[in-house]
Amino acid sequence: MPSILYFAKEGGRVISYAVRAVAFFHMFSMNAFELSSTSGDSMLPTLHVSDDYAIVDKRHKYGRNVHMGDVIVARKPNSPESWVCKRITGMPGDIILIDPSRNTLKGLRDQVAENTTKIEGQEELKRSNLNANFNNYVIVPEGHCWVTGDNLTDSIDSRTYSVLPMGLICGKLIRAWYVPRILSFKDQYFRQMDNTYCEENW
């Protein structure tokens, strides 16, 4: 008949393995990959309003090797306890029209030449007197990026809280699953988060 000492040793061994497994899983999810659910309609049609599960590549934490067009997860600049999932639409040095859904790029080069000024150590462009509400440009400073939702008409992003510090980036989305399609065995329930940025020469 096993003694109390035997059960104590076996119990200690099980606890030791469990602690190691939890520690390994924690380190893996913090530094390698993490499965995360998404919600909200700011990234439609790339991500569904709900029931989407995405693989987040944590190797891109703090903005390491991120590029224009990548879909990233980050802490919200004006509310660090909240998370946002957005697409990078501006990198350091890029000139950004703050709300492209309400304006055009016509005459951008002339406005850049005329309105560039220095503000608090970073270059920013003055608002045009012709259209003070929407004709506003900014140059993304070093160590930051500009992010927007794919659903521009319903997204709180850099147009609201300005540039995003790279240090707030927690990872990049690389794959996503839509649960209803999995349960119904429909096609295309597994998809890759492609970089859809299309560069235009102007």
UniProtKB/TrEMBL annotation:
Residues 15-174 form the Peptidase S26 domain. Its EC number is 3.4.21.-. Pfam families: Peptidase_S26. It is found in: Mitochondrion inner membrane. Belongs to the peptidase S26 family. IMP1 subfamily. This is Mitochondrial inner membrane protease subunit. The keyword Iron does not apply. The lineage of its organism: Eukaryota, Fungi, Dikarya, Ascomycota, Saccharomycotina.
